[in-house]
Amino acid sequence: MRGTSLASLGAVQLRFAPVLSAAGTTAVTLGEQLFAVVDALDSSGSLRRTLSDPAIQGGAKAGLVSGAFGRLDSRVVDVLSTAVQERWSSADDLIEAVERLGFDAVLASAQAGGELERVEDELFRITRSLVGQREVRQALFDPRVPGDKRADLAEDLLRGKVARATLVVARRAAASPRGRRFVATLGLVGELAAARRERLVAAVTSGSELSPAQLERLGQILQQSYGQDLQLNVTVDPEILGGMRIQVGADVVDSTVLAKLADARRRLAS
Length: 270
Hints:
Belongs to the ATPase delta chain family. InterPro entries: ATPase_OSCP/d_CS, ATPase_OSCP/dsu. This is ATP synthase subunit delta. Its main location: membrane. There is one protein chain. This protein has 13 helices and 4 strands. The chain has a 4-stranded mixed beta sheet with strand order 2-1-3-4. The protein has 3 domains: about 1-115; about 115-195, no CATH class; about 200-270, no CATH class. It has helices at about 5-25, 25-45, 45-50, 60-70, 75-85, 90-110, 115-130, 135-140, 145-160, 165-175, 180-195, 210-225, 255-270, and strands at about 200-205, 230-235, 245-250, 250-255. Helix 1 runs parallel beside helix 6. About 35% of the residues are buried.
């Protein structure tokens, strides 16, 4: 999402923020309802095209929202009405924005309950624990399995072990991946949690364990590069054969052996 759509998302989030703050821990319910809206938009091409069409007056689109989603919490209907009156580069951007608002609501509920840091840590730990469990990762993303069954699998793995917000995110990631792998969605929401805590996250994948001295040095280098402290989420993956991959937001530095081999193959083929 870029340009006009990104600006529209920012405007809607700004208006939604005080609503989430007032909702406190119950904001998670608003998030779950927003996810239901995403599913409805994903399943209806005509509805999402109409609601994102800049040629249709905002008031008319807001009226359509009230008619289609009037059974939902009035706060959800209000934020949707606000969203559809903004300008979006594509229908997909509108849906992505509604999904982002849903994640914002879930994280706001965790923050209100003093569990935001816990949720951020749990999301990272789940992704790290799945590194060596290929069959589980595949099961959580298998399109041949109904979404509710994948969500139940995620809950079976995590029930009683994580915060409610973490469980809601995990169920959502499994039930409706929207083109992303399960761990990718968890990583995205982890970054949103870090941003809510006003911290950048550096996702580091290494072929071997890093020593405390190496972690400290890496943290210093990234701090100098970005001008602020970063949280290092380190995953060890022997399959990359050595080296390191670092991602901070859209910035990626890949010095793994696999990346170098792939680059060599491209050069030979050109």
